[in-house]
Amino acid sequence: MAKCIIADDSKIIRMLLGRIMSNLHFEIIEAEDGEEVVELCEINEPDLVIMDWRLPVLEGIDALYKIRSLRKIRQPKVMFCSSMTDADKIREALDGGADDFIMKPFDEDIIISKLEILDLI
After folding, report:
1. Is 67 strand, coil or helix?
2. Which of 58, 63, 92, 95 is deepest in the core (most CB within 10 A)?
3. Which CATH number describes the domain made up of 3-116?
């Protein structure tokens, strides 16, 4: 079963994404902050990380850079899910190694289409 880390400071967003990803047969691991995402990536070597840009302790973009610098792990696909609409920030995420960017609000169809593009379903 593929593993997915969902990182958002909103429990509601984590629950919503968790339900969608569980329905798609992913094992779900939740994180509340950016530092926790990096630690969980080292321990669990997920297939996918879905995270918000704005996270406590360590911003999502900084967590992305740390994940991409972890050479001893199999690199996950990383998808931002954020209310951030600044084109420069989205470009920064994609240039920094993110595989995709979803804007909130989202629905299951959007998630599925992105996962198909990333060849995860």
Report:
1. helix
2. 63
3. 3.40.50.2300
